[in-house]
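Practice problem: predict the structure.
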Amino acid sequence: MDIGISGSFPWFGPPFPALAKHMEDLGFESLWTGEHIVIPVDIADPQRHGVPLPGNYRHMPDPFINFAAGAAVTTRLKFGLDVCLVTQREVLVLAKAAATLDRISNGRLIMGTGYGWIREESEILGTRFEERVRKSSEIIRALKTIWADISDPKPSQTLD
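Answer:
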């Protein structure tokens, strides 16, 4: 059985590469985190399922950059997004960032996707809240199409 660990790793926590290395050394299979690109100052309903918005959500670094740094100091640990807010990112930039991270980590990216629950965050980043589910489905189809077209005509090369 594989066991991963998930958490919100804010700016003021341990450096992410050190955390990733430690989790790999402990034997975890994967390290998961979500994202919030921006948390608005004023949120009409700052609760989800009756739970208040955690304060550290306002201090979430970019998971792609953290995962790239973690991949540089690990060899086996997989990196999972538990949830990438696809409706809040430009699809071509997202496709390239995820593919690049997957490539430099030797296939260790696990891409979990979602559409968010904070109305104001969604709308600040350009998606009407009522359209986020439909738009996320469109983006996921686009990502699958883009990634299906990625090909590597040359075998992987190593440096001697």
